[in-house]
From TrEMBL:
Its EC number is 6.1.1.18. The lineage of its organism: Bacteria, Pseudomonadati, Bacteroidota, Flavobacteriia, Flavobacteriales. One of its GO terms (molecular function) is ligase activity. This is Glutamine--tRNA ligase. L-glutamine binds at residues 67, 211. Its main location: cytoplasm. Pfam families: tRNA-synt_1c, tRNA-synt_1c_C, tRNA-synt_1c_C2. Monomer. It comes from Flavobacterium fragile.
């Protein structure tokens, strides 16, 4: 095997083998098949990158197909959100398809199965059917309705379609093998009665196909060559193939289902049911809450499409489920933002700094570099004045030898500006510092070319000019769950692990250049981390979300 072949993942190896065995390359077609019953999450992002990535690598079309077979849980809102997420990640689909497009064909094929004696109508209760199902070690028993005549089954199935029966009174089941070692092959349900409005077909139908019946047949109708699913669908493959056996025309491409492992992310949940609980019970503000593992939540928090694609590429695909540390995702985000995010100054825990020998009423506009990673350096102007805000932690009245920020009697450089020296402090009645007084070296301005400006001091701190600073609401996020695998322990409700301190809202001050920033604009607040503009932000009230820190502090805290 060549080096190139060794680098292929197991899905690519399957595709290469199929091509060698005669599948024409122009017959390759993939699909991403979400159910529109919730917002997509980070696990879906990996599946999107896999399917669309294969489409790019093999120059093959990829369909976006909505498996909209359960109208009680599906909404147009979810369809729109899914399309938005896929586009935002940077992918384009060839065809936009819906399982509901195929309802008539699926019904017609179900009639064919009845005519072949391979499907029957059952009117037992769900409890009765469950008892007859057996166990993994004991075979099931046949339904008393299993041997209904073809004519009776056809009549009942048509009456089901015509809306003559209430919900739950009848189902259509495939007639396979009640003794099969695969429980899914024990006469699975193909159709159930649901008098519910469908977001696309309205009230045209009151019977809806089950996922297993609709999925493979939809793949076949779209001529999907490789139907890629997560591992929980491995037991479904036998049923997938059985259904295809009964409608397959050998002049067409027969879809092949293959499975890959779900990649779970630490300190999150990726069950849509559990994510919905978090939303409905208001543990979060919505599907796009920046603490959520949804793609919309990650987007709002400031994660970039490139970083998520790189994360998916980094973790790859595997045959066994495993837990990926969220720090790896944050590393990918940090790596991308480092290249593209402008550097700006903001102060989140302010204390007032007065430069006593700076002229009263004077202001300067100093040059500040936007991003040192730029090939051609660009600059912006930042205002400087007598009164500034600095971070409270950047000053200590009495400091140890390794504290290289501002103290009384020592010097520090203000970023892009002057060297200052701490002289005195003013305190309130409780002993808290309310003002720091310092003097500046007038000849030490950064980039002025004077000998004094080249003078080296051990520390540099950031600042904002008080007369020019803009107040901002800053939302600081932590892990939504304190446990790395909150839904692993079946004895404990996953909500028990919700972090009560996952959101901290503070008031900070930013340089005035950020007034014109727009939703999702990214910035590095120097020395503080990466932030983005939230959708709640406007000219009257700036709002920023903290995307990720400058380094992985969580790992260090965890080790301690």
């Amino acid at each position: 095997m060549s080096t190139e072949e060794k680098s292929l993942n197991f899905i690519e190896q399957i595709i290469e083998e199929d091509l060698k065995n005669g599948l024409s390359a122009d017959k390759l077609r993939f699909r991403f098949p979400p159910e529109p019953n919730g917002y997509l999450h980070v696990g879906h992002a990996s599946a999107i990158c896999l399917n669309f990535g294969l489409g790019i690598d093999y120059n093959a079309p990829v369909n976006l197909r909505f498996d909209d077979t359960n109208p009680s849980k599906e909404e147009q809102e979810y369809v729109d959100a899914i399309k938005r997420d896929v586009e935002w990640l940077g992918f384009k689909w060839d065809k936009e398809c819906y399982a509901s497009d195929y309802f008539q064909q699926l019904y017609d094929w179900a009639v064919v199965l009845i005519q072949k004696g391979k499907a029957y109508v059952d009117n037992q209760s769900s409890e009765e059917m469950a008892k007859q199902k057996g166990t993994p070690t004991q075979p099931g028993t046949n339904s008393p309705n299993r041997d209904r005549s073809v004519d009776e089954n056809l009549d009942l199935f048509e009456r089901m379609k015509n809306g003559e029966f209430p919900n739950g009174s009848y189902v259509l089941r495939a007639k396979i093998d009640m003794a099969s070692p695969n429980m899914l092959m024990r006469d699975p349900i193909m159709y159930r009665i649901m008098h519910a409005h469908h977001h696309r077909t309205g009230n045209d139908w009151c019977i809806y196909p089950m996922y297993d019946w609709a999925h493979g047949e939809s793949d076949y109708l779209e001529q999907i060559s490789h139907s890629l699913c997560t591992l929980e669908f491995l037991p479904h493959r036998e049923l997938y193939d059985w259904f295809l056996d009964n409608i397959y025309d050998n002049s067409k491409v027969r879809p092949k289902q293959r499975e890959f492992a779900r990649r779970n992310l630490s300190h999150t949940v990726v069950s849509k049911r559990k994510l919905l609980q978090l939303v409905e019970e208001k543990h979060v503000t919505g599907w796009d809450d920046p603490r959520m593992s949804t793609i919309s939540g990650m987007r709002r928090r400031g994660y970039t499409p490139a970083s998520i694609r790189n994360f998916a590429k980094t973790i790859g695909i595997a045959k066994r489920d495993n837990l990926i540390d969220v720090s790896l995702l944050e590393f990918c985000v940090r790596e991308d933002l480092n290249k593209i995010a402008p550097r700006v100054m903001a102060v989140l825990d302010p204390v007032k700094l007065v430069i006593t020998n700076y002229p009263e009423g004077q202001e300067e506009w100093l040059d500040a570099e936007n991003n040192p990673e730029e090939e051609v350096m660009t600059y912006r102007k930042v205002p400087f004045s007598k009164e500034l805000y600095i971070e409270r932690e950047d000053f200590q009245e009495e400091a140890h030898k390794k504290f290289f920020r501002l103290t009384l009697g020592t010097e520090v450089r203000l970023k892009n500006a002057y060297i200052i020296k701490g002289e005195s402090v003013i305190k309130d009645e409780n002993g808290n510092i309310t003002e720091i007084h310092a003097t500046y070296d007038v000849d030490s301005k950064s980039g002025s070319g004077t000998e004094a400006s080249q003078r080296k001091v051990k520390g540099t701190i950031h600042w904002v000019s008080i007369p020019h600073a803009k107040e901002a609401e800053v939302r600081i996020y932590d892990r939504l769950f304190t446990n790395e695998s909150p839904d692993k322990d079946k004895e404990v409700n996953f909500k028990e692990y919700i972090n009560p301190n996952s959101l901290k809202v503070i008031t900070g001050y930013v340089e005035p250049s950020l007034v014109t920033s727009k939703e999702l604009d990214h910035f590095q607040f120097q020395r503080l981390g990466y932030f983005c503009v939230d959708r709640d932000s406007n000219a009257e009230k700036l709002v920023f979300n903290k995307t990720v820190g400058l380094r992985d502090t969580w790992a260090k805290i965890s080790e301690q």
